[in-house]
C-alpha cells in the first residue's frame, strides 16, 4: 500500500489490500499521525481525531500485516517546536495552533509505542530524537515547518533507521 504526503490514518487504514506494500530493509515502515494531528486546521470539514480512533485505525492497518508475518517498523509521529508563524499554502499556523497540535499528538505517540510493543515491531522514536537534536541546532534545521523534514531531517531519520534495523 502506498500513500503520499498528506495521507491520514483513516486513508491508510482504508487502503485496498491489493495495493503494493512497501517493504524495505528491515520490514514495512509506517509513519502515521502528523496529518491526523493538524489536518483540521486546514480542512474546513476536518475534525480532531481522538487517540482511541487513531489507535483503532492503526490496529486495522497493522493486524493483517502482522498476521502475514511482516516485520513492522513503526515511526513515531513528530512535531518540532518551531517559533513564530509558519505559512503552509494559504494557511498561517501560529504557536497557539502548534500547542494544540502537540496536546493532540502526545497521546498518539503513546498509541504508536503501545502498538509497537503489541506487535513486536521496531520503534523509531522520532519525536524524542528530533527534540534532542533540536536542542543543539534549533528545530528549523530538522523540519522548517516543524512537521516535514528538511534534507538534514531526512538524513537523521535514515541514520536512525539504519541503526534500528542493522
TrEMBL record:
SUPFAM superfamilies: SGNH hydrolase. It holds the Pfam family Lipase_GDSL_2. Residues 28-156 form the SGNH hydrolase-type esterase domain. InterPro entries: SGNH_hydro, SGNH_hydro_sf. Gene3D superfamilies: SGNH hydrolase (3.40.50.1110). It comes from the Bacteria. Transmembrane segments: none annotated. This is GDSL-type esterase/lipase family protein. It comes from Streptomyces luomodiensis.
Amino acid at each position: 500500500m502506498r500513500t503520499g504526503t498528506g495521507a491520514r490514518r483513516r486513508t491508510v487504514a482504508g487502503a485496498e489490500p491489493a495495493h503494493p506494500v512497501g517493504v524495505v530493509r528491515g520490514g514495512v515502515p509506517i509513519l502515521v499521525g502528523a496529518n491526523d494531528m493538524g489536518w483540521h486546521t486546514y480542512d474546513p470539514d476536518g475534525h480532531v481525531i481522538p487517540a482511541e480512533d487513531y489507535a483503532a485505525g492503526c490496529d486495522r492497518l497493522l493486524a493483517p500485516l502482522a498476521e502475514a508475518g511482516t516485520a513492522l517498523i513503526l515511526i513515531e509521529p513528530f512535531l518540532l517546536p518551531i517559533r513564530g508563524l509558519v505559512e503552509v499554502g494559504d494557511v498561517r499556523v501560529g504557536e497557539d495552533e502548534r500547542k494544540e497540535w502537540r496536546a493532540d499528538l502526545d497521546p498518539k505517540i503513546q498509541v504508536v509505542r503501545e502498538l509497537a510493543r503489541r506487535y513486536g515491531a521496531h520503534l523509531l522514536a522520532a519525536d524524542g530524537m528530533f527534540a534532542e537534536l533540536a536542542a543543539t541546532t534549533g528545530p528549523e534545521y530538522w523540519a522548517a515547518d516543524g512537521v516535514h523534514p528538511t534534507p538534514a531531517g531526512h538524513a537523521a531519520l535514515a541514520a536512525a533507521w539504519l541503526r534500528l534495523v542493522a
